[in-house]
């Protein structure tokens, strides 16, 4: 399996537009490096990956905060699910949904909180991959290197047949068949290895501009060389050379990709198995298997994909690992009560901005307080009781006695109910 290099930009909605913006960023990085005499696409990929992942740090923090609260909420949610297990009537389903929603409100989070973060990140990551995969399409400085040769080739009669025969003779599986447009020729030229550039010079129809082909080959090779490897080549191709240095360097790409991704997964929060909960234990087991398989798959793909993609995977995994390490330290220092208070304040501010009428807020507060009490009555165990007590205190203090807030109204309703129960 080999990766296909394309100069054509992605036409996928949203992803295509994001990729264009990222292309501008990478092109700017290349120009800055060029100003100091560095023309290296491998280094551009590393810097580019670091910048993009740094920009996504706030999203990562939000997602990890949700994960931390989710781990605390999970026992309560599971008790609600167990309470209504096997009950399929509409009334039971509605009650289960209400009580589950009350737990989320209790901790000041949204049930779709994690999904929102992922929905924002995924298009960015896909676009990032597109730029790394199709560098000439998005980085004008690279595309322009091929302009001279590309123009000359377009002027040759029957150039499509000549190049397509060249592709077939050299078994170039990483490019599509050349058509009569410049982008397809750039696809072809960007995929050429040093030896194939020399073979291109020997084509009789191209003899009139063989010097320009040689100059372009030298320039693009300088840009693509990272250490002793060419970012457009596959590591597997170097193993066939017999050179010990090249083989070691080529093997380092997939091995580092595997190692860095394993490190990143180790630093990620892991779901704990729970006694008597076969479904959750099965899910945790599946995740563990996936966490083992995915880095191995990454290493496998690195053998057959261009070195440039391997560099991107390694750089991104290293950045994510550092991010995760710092986020873990930050969250470990954060008190759960403070986190709940922060979420409650944000939730109240959002509801105030939505302009919900007072009566509607009161009804919501009444329902939340009622359901929260139900959930708390069903809890057992010293740890859960203590945790519930802490969260309850945070819930009471979340509004900081701010008059008219939803939390203040919820507390008033609950106090009223408790006084009635005592009578």
Automatic annotation (TrEMBL):
Regions that span the bilayer:
12-30, 36-56, 238-259, 296-319
Membrane protein topology class: Multi-pass membrane protein
* Record keywords, A-Z: Cell membrane, Chaperone, Membrane, Protein transport, Transmembrane, Transmembrane helix, Transport
Q: Please give one Pfam family short name.
A: 60KD_IMP
Q: Give this protein's Gene Ontology molecular function annotations.
A: membrane insertase activity
Q: Which domain of life is it from?
A: Bacteria
Q: Which family does it belong to?
A: Belongs to the OXA1/ALB3/YidC family.
Q: What is this protein called?
A: Membrane protein insertase MisCA
* Organism, scientific name: Blautia obeum
């Amino acid at each position: 399996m080999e990766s296909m290099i394309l100069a054509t930009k992605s036409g996928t909605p949203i992803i295509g537009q994001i990729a264009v913006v990222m292309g501008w960023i990478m092109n700017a990085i290349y120009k800055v490096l060029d100003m100091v005499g560095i023309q290296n696409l491998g280094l551009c990929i590393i810097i580019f990956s670091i910048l993009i992942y740094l920009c996504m740090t706030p999203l990562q923090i939000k997602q990890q905060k949700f994960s931390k609260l989710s781990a605390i909420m999970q026992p309560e949610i599971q008790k609600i699910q167990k309470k209504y297990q096997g009950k399929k009537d509409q009334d039971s389903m509605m009650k289960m949904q209400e009580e589950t929603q009350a737990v989320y409100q209790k901790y000041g989070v949204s049930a779709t909180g994690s999904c929102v973060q992922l929905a924002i990140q995924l298009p960015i990551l896909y676009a990032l991959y597109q730029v790394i995969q199709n560098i000439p399409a998005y980085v004008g400085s690279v595309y322009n290197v091929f302009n001279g040769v590309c123009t000359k080739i377009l002027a040759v009669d029957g150039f499509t047949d000549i190049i397509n025969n060249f592709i077939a003779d050299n078994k170039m599986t990483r490019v599509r068949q050349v058509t009569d447009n410049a982008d397809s020729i750039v696809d072809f030229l960007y995929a050429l290895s040093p030896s194939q550039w020399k073979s291109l010079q020997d084509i009789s129809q191209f003899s009139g501009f063989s010097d320009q082909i040689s100059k372009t080959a030298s320039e693009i090779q300088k840009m693509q060389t990272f250490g002793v490897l060419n970012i457009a080549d596959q590591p597997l191709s170097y193993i066939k050379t017999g050179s010990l240095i090249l083989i070691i360097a080529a093997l380092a790409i997939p091995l580092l990709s595997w190692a860095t991704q394993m490190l990143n997964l180790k630093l990620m929060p892991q779901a704990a198995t729970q006694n008597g909960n076969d479904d959750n234990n099965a899910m945790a087991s599946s995740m563990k298997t996936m966490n083992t398989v995915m880095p191995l798959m990454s290493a496998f793909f690195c053998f057959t994909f261009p070195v440039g993609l391997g560099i991107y995977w390694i750089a991104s995994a290293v950045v994510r690992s550092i991010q995760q390490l710092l986020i873990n330290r930050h969250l470990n220092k954060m008190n759960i009560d403070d986190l709940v208070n922060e979420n409650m304040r944000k939730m109240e501010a959002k509801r105030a901005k939505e302009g919900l009428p007072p009566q509607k807020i009161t009804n919501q507060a009444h329902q939340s307080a009622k359901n929260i009490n139900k959930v708390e009555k069903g809890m057992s165990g010293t740890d859960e009781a203590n945790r519930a007590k802490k969260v309850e205190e945070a819930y009471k203090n979340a509004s900081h006695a701010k008059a008219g807030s939803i939390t203040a109204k919820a507390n008033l309703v609950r106090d009223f109910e408790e006084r009635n129960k005592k009578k």
